[in-house]
Design goal:
Blueprint: E1 5-9, H1 14-25, E2 29-36, H2 55-68, E3 72-76, H3 78-94, H4 101-120, E4 125-127, E5 132-136, E6 142-146, H5 163-167, E7 169-170, H6 178-187, H7 209-217, E8 225-228, E9 234-238, E10 261-266, E11 271-275, E12 281-292, E13 302-307, E14 315-323, E15 326-336, E16 343-348, E17 351-362
Parallel strand pairs: 1-2, 1-4, 2-3, 4-7, 8-11
Antiparallel strand pairs: 5-6, 8-9, 10-11, 12-15, 12-17, 13-14, 13-16, 14-15, 16-17
Length: 364
């Protein structure tokens, strides 16, 4: 019987390096691929921060492939990345939302584009170094299960993978802790064993989101406007809505004599709403663009744990459909900074039921 062929997305980091090693040890025919996404050929600034997409990353991945005696290729996905990730990121901020570009990248680049190309080359699977586990449930559907290491779990950023994608996906490092992965890399002599993890958003290495958006969008960027109370009283001038996100306290430059926070962004009126601490909390949210994994659809109200951002531990809530592509979460306890544009991901017993994109949050 011929070996199953798997294309491993190799970022040059320790996790994808060990993923390739583990799959080779399991008997797969392994091919390493590094994806060219946003960077210019001469740009390796990102490497100083342990990034995953720059020139040094390609070289690190190539060296790992040589060590493991597997072929390595570079594939160009710049056009897809611009359309599906960067344009989406910019448009969301201009629309008053706070997007998660890693989720879009996972869904449309690391899976849709890479998987299509890999299957076309005769591969059976693609694999990554994500800390998550693919499981097949008794109902026959594929879903993600939280990684063995709760501290490194990355299922939140993968909630919108399709059944087709999951059925052709392997995630071998999800059963290990980060320390175990680094130990394996060290034991087999990989150069990437102690390479720092990538941080923040890869295509904005200086983390100046507003500056990046201005360079990308030019005249489309909203101008300065008013800080207002929830009732509409003007408190001062803001720099433009792309500079702010829900729950933000720093950088407001408002001297009101007590701590204040961004509680809402109103793109139609170009206003940033300012409130006090309790006004940052919400006991419900509404999400759209739903994707279900563990079941085909949500047919009845369920008790779930919902995560509303990557580093949120999750909060119990009742989840119900309130439209064809619309769901509502009602939380047992109010949650802080429900942010339109971010994902909400639903879990039961560490299994990802599905998720969606937050469109609103509030009280009552």
């Amino acid at each position: 019987m011929a070996k199953k062929k798997v294309v491993v997305g190799m970022s040059g980091g320790v996790d994808s390096s060990v993923a390739a090693y583990l799959l080779k040890e399991q008997g797969y025919e392994v091919i390493g691929v590094t994806m060219r996404t946003w960077q210019e050929e001469e740009n390796s600034l990102l490497e100083e921060n342990g990034g995953c997409c720059g020139l040094d990353a390609v070289e690190d991945a190539r060296r790992v492939a040589e060590t493991l005696h597997i072929p390595h290729y570079v594939m160009n996905f710049r056009r897809e990345f611009q359309e599906k990730v960067i344009d989406y990121f910019v448009d969301a901020y201009i629309g008053g939302r706070t997007p998660n570009p890693c989720i879009a990248c996972n869904r449309f680049i690391k899976w849709e584009a890479l998987l299509e190309k890999s299957l076309g080359l005769g591969a059976d699977y693609i694999a990554t170094g994500h800390y998550a586990q693919v499981v097949k449930l008794p109902n026959g559907r594929y879903a993600l299960k939280a990684a063995a290491s709760a501290a490194k779990d990355q299922t939140y950023a993968l909630y919108n993978l399709t059944q087709h994608q999951l059925s052709h996906t392997l995630m071998p490092v999800g059963a290990y802790t980060k320390e175990e992965i680094r130990s394996i890399a060290e034991k087999i002599g990989l150069k990437t064993a102690h390479k720092p993890d990538s941080q923040e958003i890869c295509f904005i290495p200086d983390q100046d989101y507003a500056g990046f958006i201005e360079r990308q969008a030019g005249e489309r960027v909203p101008p300065q406007g008013n800080f207002v109370t929830p009732e509409g009283e003007i408190l001062g001038k803001h720099k433009g809505i792309t500079h702010y996100t829900i729950g933000q306290r720093k950088g407001l430059n408002l001297a009101l004599g007590h701590p204040v926070f961004v509680t809402e962004i109103r793109p139609k009126t170009n206003e940033v709403v300012i409130g006090v601490g309790e006004q940052v909390f919400a006991d419900r949210l509404v999400a759209e663009e739903l994707n279900f994994m563990a079941m085909e659809d949500l047919t009845e109200a369920l008790q779930v744990v919902a995560k509303i951002r990557y580093n949120h531990k999750g909060s119990p809530c009742i989840l119900r459909k309130v439209g064809e592509d619309r769901a509502e979460c009602c939380f047992q306890e109010p949650v802080r900074a429900v942010t339109p544009g971010q994902a909400v991901v639903f879990y039961q017993d560490r299994i990802v039921l599905g998720g969606g994109c937050i469109v609103s949050g509030g009280a009552g």
